[in-house]
Amino acid sequence: MLELWNERLRQEMKACEGELRELRRQQQAPCRDCTHLQENAGLQERLSQLQREAEEARAKLAELDLEVQQKTNRLAEVELRLKDSLAERAEEEERLSRRLRDSQETIASLKSQPQQIKYIIKTVEVESAKAKQALCESQSRNQYLQEQVGMQRQVLKEMEQQLQSSQKTAAQLRAQIMMYEAELERAHGQMLEEMQAMEEEKNRAIEEAFSRAQVEMKAVHENLAGVRTNLLTLQPALRTLTHDYNNLKRQVRDFPLLLQETLRSARAEIGQAIEEVHSTNRELLRKYRRELQLRKKCHNELVRLKGNIRVFGRVRPITKEDGEGPEAANVVTFDADDDAVLHLLHKGKQVSFELDKVFPPQASQEEVFQEVQALVTSCIDGYNVCIFAYGQTGAGKTYTMEGTAANPGINQRALQLLFSEVRGKAADWDYAISVSAAEIYNEALRDLLGKEPQEKLEIKLCPDGSGQLYVPGLTEFRVQSVEDINKVRGDGGWWEEEGGTEGLMNWGGSLVHDPQIRDHF
Ligand code: ADP
Ligand code: MG
C-alpha cells in the first residue's frame, strides 16, 4: 500500500518536473527583463517548495516503513519465544507425567510383592524345621523387603511431593504464559493501533501534499497561461526592438567611418581656425606695436607739453622744532585762483614766484606723487627721468622724497609703481632693472655703491651717437623688487646730499619682448 502511494507520488513528481522543464523552455531570453520572469521565479520557488514537502513526506513514509518493519520483527521474535516456551512446557509436562507413571508402576509392583511374601510365610509355617529355617530366612527377607517397601513409600511420598510442586510450578508457568500471551496480545493490539494511526497519518499527509500540489499546479497552470498571453503580446514589441537593434547595429558599424570623416573635417576646420587665429594674432601684434609707438609718442608729447623740466614748490607745515615768536612766523601765502603762484613776505614786502605747481602744507604725499607719476611711465617707455628735491636743511626734502614707513614719499611710491607695471607686462615683456648710485660733490664724481667710494669717475658721451651720457666703471646691481633696492641702498643715506639736494636718478634697464623688438631706456 505504502509503496503504491510512493510510486504514485514519484510519478506525479516526475510529471511536475517535466512541466517545469517545459515552462523553463518556453520562458527563454526574449522575456529576460520582463516581470514574468519574476513570476516564473516565484512559481519555481513554490514548486520546489512543494517538491521539498513531498520529499519530506517520502522520508517520513520511509521512516514509518522502517518502524513497521522493526515492530513486525519484534512480534516474530516474541512469537518465536512463546513457541519455545510452550514446547519447553510440553516437554516438562511430558517428563513429569512419565515420572508419575513410573512411580505409580513401582508402587503397584511393591504393593503386589508383600501379598506373595505373606502367602509364602503362611505356607512355610506348616512346613518342617527346615522349613522353619527357610521361614526365618524368609522372615528376615520379609523384614528387608518391608524396609524396602518403607523406603519405597518414603520415595513415593517424596515423589508425590515433587509431583505436587511440579504441578504447582506448571500452574505457575501456565499463569505466566497466559500473562505473557495477554501482554503479547496487548502489544500486538497496540502495535496494530499504532500502525493504523501511522497509516492514517501517512495517508492524510500524502493527501494533504497531493491536494496542495494540485492547487499549486493549478496556480502554476494559470500563471503559465498568463505568461503565454504576455509572451504573445510581447512578440510585436520584441519585433520592434529587433528592428531598432538592427538599425543601431548598422549605425554602430558605420560610426567609425562617420567619426573619421567628422574628425577629418573637424581637423581641417580647426587647422583653418588656428591659421586664422595666427593671422589675426599677427595682425593684432602689428597693430599693437603701432599703437604702442603711438602711445609712447603721445605720452612723450604730453610730458613735453607739460614741460620737460618742471619745478614744483612744496611748503611744509610749521613744526614744533620751528619754535615760537617772530622767527617762526609764516611768511608764505598762496593764490586762491592759481595753484602755480606763491607769495612770500620778505622784509615787509610781498614777492611772488611762479612755478609749475605749488603744494600747500596740507598737500598729502599721495597728491605730490600723482604729479610725477607720469614720469615713471615715461621711464618704462625708455626715457631718462630725473627727479630731485632742492632746499635748505629742514625744508622737508627727505620727507618728500623718502617719507616715513607709514606715509612713504616719491622714491618708494615710484619704485612700487615701476615694479607693479613691470609685473603687469611680464607676460609679454622681459625686463631687466639695475640700480647704480653716484654723487657729484665739489666737481668730483663718486660711486656710492662701489667698493672704493673715494675713487674718482668720469662722465662720458655714449659712443653710439645717441647723445646719452654714461659713467664707465659705475657699479650696477640687478634688482627684482623694491626690497632688493632697499637692501642695496642700506640705510638710504646715499640719497642725501650735503648741499641740500636729493633725488632719484638713473633708472636703467632693458626690456625684451621678442627678438625683433628691443627697446632700451
Ligand atoms: P630736510 O630733509 O630738507 O632737511 P626734513 O625732511 O628732514 O628736511 O624735514 C624737517 C622736519 O619737518 C622733519 O621733522 C619732517 O618730518 C617735517 N616735515 C617736513 N615736511 C613735512 C610735511 N609736508 N608734513 C609734515 N611734516 C613735515
Ligand atoms: Mg634731509
From TrEMBL:
Keyword Isomerase: no
Residues bound to ATP: G391, Q392, T393, G394, A395, G396, K397, T398
SMART domains: KISc (SM00129)
A Pfam family this chain is assigned to: Kinesin
Family to which this protein belongs: Belongs to the TRAFAC class myosin-kinesin ATPase superfamily. Kinesin family.
PROSITE patterns, per the entry: KINESIN_MOTOR_2
Keywords for the protein's UniProt record, in alphabetical order: ATP-binding, Coiled coil, Cytoplasm, Cytoskeleton, Motor protein, Nucleotide-binding
Native species: Strix occidentalis caurina (northern spotted owl)
Gene Ontology molecular function, alphabetical: ATP binding; microtubule binding; microtubule motor activity
InterPro entries: Kinesin-like_fam (IPR027640), Kinesin_motor_dom (IPR001752), Kinesin_motor_dom_sf (IPR036961), P-loop_NTPase (IPR027417)
Positions in coiled-coil regions: 6-113, 156-212
Location of the Kinesin motor domain: 308-488
Protein name from the UniProt record: Kinesin family member C3
GO biological process: microtubule-based movement
Keyword Nucleotide-binding in record: yes
Subcellular location: Cytoplasm, Cytoskeleton
Signal sequence extent: none
